[in-house]
Amino acid sequence: MATIKDVAKRAGVSISTVSNVINSSKYVSEELKQRVNQAIAELNYRVDVTARNMKTRTTKTIGVVVNSIGSIFIPQVMNGIQNYASKRGYQILFYASDFIFEKEKRCVSLLLDNKVDGIIIDTVASYKEKSYFEYLANLKTGDKNVFVVSLERNLMRYGIYSVHVNNLLGGKMATEYLIEKGCRDIAVISGPNSMDVIYDRLCGYKEALQEAGLPYHADRIEFGDYTTLSGYLAMKRFITNAVHFDGVFSCNDQMAIGALKALKESGLEIPDAIKLIGFDNTYVSSIAVPALTTINVPKFRMGVVAAQKLVDMIEGNLEEGECSYEIPVNLIKRMTTDADSDNGIELEW
């Protein structure tokens, strides 16, 4: 079996240069990289991961905990994480909590047992779980030395680096556009009210109503669980209860797609009678019939930034004082609000 010494000899470089190429730890010229990589291929060299980990006390492994593998939001985020991490020589351990807080905590424990260098987490914990957030923040101290990045949730007040969007702005942007299109009775299909992401989107909705001089009515809010079925059932409840509305803001695209199905079943014309807007700009929003107007969240970019910031922390390269990164959102106009929209399929895949 070839050793790193054999690779160095074949490439005509030092052992440290081979190590730098393998670990992407220091700058190496393209010419030397090519020689080293060619030698690795010719000798069929494989890195002894166990030996490397014992020497460096790192595993070059990142743990990722997401809320659900069934979410159409997650794949593009994971693609971004994997894309960046692999370029930096890190492997990924992936877990899903299925929106169960106790399961999320078990996932974190499993990652710690596997000696990961850092964790990216899309937590489902209620905003009331202060002690849990403090626990995550403190993982970087003491013997564990595990860094944590929060995905979607802004937890920087607990000392957790956060990669997130301005959810209040997004909720306000969605509601303002419905108002601009002539809606005066705007209903909301919300996610779980224990999540500050949803709380912020609802605050944006209420702020837009207030600034437009429109009243807020509690009976115009139905709660879902982010799934398509919950959006469908929420819209059915609005219709069954004869709630008057001419516009709907759904706090994610999946619930909006379910709501769209219920509206079509009820014979309500979209966008003539009811205008509908989602949040996330997942791939289904552009292929729905009619195509869904939505707030765009750059999901691949979010994954890349989360991985980049975590690796920077692990390797001691994060700028001093930096504690969060806000991903900008923007409105994508499609046919559930604009019948003459020519926005076609917009996929990031």
Automatic annotation (TrEMBL):
Assigned keywords, A-Z: DNA-binding, Transcription, Transcription regulation
Gene3D superfamilies per the UniProt record, alphabetical: 3.40.50.2300, lambda repressor-like DNA-binding domains
Domain of life: Bacteria
One annotated GO molecular function: transcription cis-regulatory region binding
Key word DNA-binding present: yes
InterPro entries linked to this entry: HTH_LacI, LacI/GalR-like_sensor, Lambda_DNA-bd_dom_sf, Peripla_BP_I
Keyword set includes Transferase: no
Alphabetical list of SMART domains matching this protein: HTH_LACI (SM00354)
A Pfam family hit: Peripla_BP_3
Boundaries of every HTH lacI-type domain copy: 2-56
Protein name: LacI family DNA-binding transcriptional regulator
Species the sequence originates in: Yeguia hominis
